[in-house]
Design brief:
This protein has 116 residues and is α+β, with helices and mostly antiparallel strands. 34% of the residues lie in helices and 9% in strands. It has 3 helices and 3 strands.
Length: 116
């Protein structure tokens, strides 16, 4: 059992807080003094522009960045008719990664992604 004499403590699974000169009380979640430290995207969670918290799905930001990059690779491939080697060099990725992007897009040249 955790000591009740500590300034902030957890006792039997409930958040217990103490203020100077006040008895120990069971704080409701809305009254608990949570810290809003944010992350590298935003200094405050309450003012964050992301549609989903990066801590709820840790791979979400990397996945979004990868999908954006893949879309750019496909646009450049379709617009400029560049080779796999040229795309790899321009985007700083391996030729194998370019091949993976093209194969995920469908027929290998990425044109089906932009059809209406």
């Amino acid at each position: 059992m955790v000591s009740r004499n500590r300034e902030n403590c957890f006792w039997r699974g409930f958040a217990m807080t103490r203020r100077k000169g006040m008895p120990l009380i069971d704080a409701l979640p809305e009254y608990y003094p949570y810290r809003d430290n944010g992350c590298e995207v935003s200094p405050s969670c309450l003012a964050c522009p992301l549609p989903k918290c990066r801590y709820d799905d840790p791979g979400w930001i990397q996945r979004e960045a990868r999908e954006k990059r893949d879309g750019e690779v496909l646009k450049v491939r379709h617009r400029d008719r560049k080779t796999v080697h040229q795309l790899a060099k321009e985007f700083g990725i391996s030729q194998r990664t370019v091949h993976r992007i093209l194969s995920r897009a469908g027929n290998g040249n990425g044109t089906n992604v932009f059809r209406s």
